[in-house]
Amino acid sequence: MRVTEAVVDVPVSFGVVRAAVVRPVATKPAPLLLCFADIFGNTEAHLRVMRRLASHGFVVVSPEPWAHHLPPGSVLDFDADRDRALSCQDIASADAADEARRALITHFKADAGCSGAVCVIGFCYGGHLSFRAATDVASDVVAAACFYGTGLHRDRLGNTPTSTLSQAKDIKGELLLVWGRQDPHIPPEGRALIHRTLDHADVRFETRLYDAEHAFGRDVGPRYDAAAFDDAVMATLALFRRATGG
């Protein structure tokens, strides 16, 4: 399926949130898929993932993660800007992320190309945001895929204290949690805590654990594991189709 690409600026209290948009060239409305990036933002590697997902029939929208702090269009380089990207976690704001997400959902629910169903997916920092989106009843998220979401087990969004995991009881949709066994940021006891919390909250969820490192889905550098990522993407698409009736 062919796709088109665009950029949209949506007004929020702190200015605008800029989002990359990749949508299928189709004659019927498609489900909205919010796709939260890692700490580097909407890099070319992230856009490649967005194009892949859009080609399966989703309007894929990725807000810039630091819209409350950096100017619109800020994309950080994996090597040259690594320290800057890591330092951005010190100014992470759950309130800003929540406002940006809700503004984008409102904007795209009025889009004739969207069917009304909302799914979310995120990677690393964005994996935490996708989990958080699933807890927000007002966002109407029917399914969420959280790829190696950082900070959930420590009650931190970036380096900012938050309480995302304790809100698991508010999740109404179905979750897919994707982990790398060799991920130093999310140890086995951290994964176990997240799973126990979801069990106690009676949330419908599935987990996929791969013998891979953190960020194994980013096709840049030695950590990339194409076989594991392909399998996780297929599981994600199956979840989203099931949740949206596609």
User: What is the assigned CATH homologous superfamily?
Assistant: Alpha/Beta hydrolase fold, catalytic domain
Neighbour order of strands in the largest sheet? 1-2-4-3-5-6-9-10
Structural class designation: alpha/beta
Backbone shape: globular
Helicity, as a percent range = 25-40%
- Number of H/I helices: 6
Instruction: Assign the CATH class.
Output: Alpha Beta
Radius of gyration: 16 Å
The N- and C-terminal alpha carbons lie at a distance of 15 Å
**CATH topology, which one?**
Rossmann fold
How many domain units? 1
Q: Strand-residue fraction?
A: 25-35%
Average pLDDT level: 97
> Any low-confidence stretches, pLDDT <50, length ≥5?
none
Main pleated-sheet profile: 8 strands, mixed
Order of helices and strands: EEEHEHHEHEEEEHEH
In total, the number of strands is 10
Q: Write the CATH architecture name.
A: 3-Layer(aba) Sandwich
Question: What does this entry look like structurally?
Answer:
The protein is an alpha/beta fold and 246 residues long. The chain has a single domain (3-244), classed as Alpha/Beta hydrolase fold, catalytic domain (Rossmann fold, 3-Layer(aba) Sandwich). The protein has helices at residues 44-54, 82-88, 94-109, 125-135, 188-200, 226-244; strands spanning 3-12, 15-24, 30-36, 59-63, 114-123, 141-147, 156-157, 160-161, 174-180, 205-210. Strands 1-2-4-3-5-6-9-10 form an 8-stranded mixed beta sheet, with helices on both faces. A two-stranded antiparallel ribbon has the order 7-8.
